[in-house]
Design a protein that fits this description.
homodimer; mainly alpha; Arc Repressor Mutant, subunit A; 2 domains; two-stranded antiparallel sheet; 5 helices; 55% helix; DNA-binding
DNA sequence: ATAATTGTATTGTGCACTTAATACAGTCAT
DNA sequence: ATGACTGTATTAAGTGCACAATACAATTAT
């Protein structure tokens, strides 16, 4: 469980995405109880206030609900989770194609790029 | 020329990426003179200080250089631009695959997603 | 020469994010 | 009942981002 943060974006939003991912990919199961705010904050090495803000934000998506004094739980609606996972995958794909277009590459370039990327699993390569 | 900004990230960084894109995709040609800081700021509807910060940041990448009192210019090194475009495309692809993995999908799912995304060019679909 | 245009620098203000340190009310185990 | 947990709220401090309003030196156009 690695909690690393991009310095260029609010931590609490990255926490939201991080946790959302764990729900969508099944690391957190439907109905499962989440660790407490304080525990999650300690694990992620952030302030409890920041984690609280992230969790509050997460509830607006309906993936998580709170039982006032006993804790937070993942939604039991497995269908909803599956639906959101598919939508997330489609959105990622659309953004990928849009980014390629911004670089001046046609969507048809995607296939070759995917093949190339899977061959060389090396360098992470930041800009320069 | 649309300059729209994501509220969740620093504007000056988005400006950097925006301009970098225009260089990599050929909208800005090698050797071409850039509009002045003030003009660019007006076009993007941001404060000149913010645009100045973005441009200063851009020079660290070597895609742009300054002639003290006459203006800023795109590098004439077309090979460098081409090299960076290829690298950018590969990085985008790697991130796409990594994001799919985070969703619990195998890289082999990419092909089907690309096909699906190109069929339905509709909804932008944000979370919920 | 004068005026306009270049990049650059400075000072101040407002706002959001993050951390820290507490505090409170309700639930649960003992 | 007591103590340890839950989520939640508040106040204070520090930081970075963005804007506003100027200002200056050097080049370019007139």
């Amino acid at each position: 469980m690695v909690w690393s943060f991009d310095a260029d974006r609010p931590i609490y939003l990255q926490l939201v995405e991080h946790i959302q991912q764990k729900i969508l990919n099944g690391e957190f199961q439907p109905g499962e109880k989440l660790p407490s705010v304080r525990d999650l904050a300690a694990t992620a090495a952030v302030n409890p206030n920041t984690m609280q803000k992230a969790l509050a934000e997460l509830e607006r998506g309906g993936l998580v609900f709170t039982q006032r004094t006993s804790g937070r739980f993942i939604t039991q609606d497995a269908a909803k989770i599956a639906r959101l996972r598919e939508r997330a995958a489609l959105n990622l794909t659309r953004r990928f194609l849009a980014d390629l277009t911004s670089l001046g590459l046609p969507p048809s370039a995607a296939a070759a790029l995917l093949a190339a990327a899977q061959k060389s699993e090396n360098r992470s390569d930041v800009s320069d």
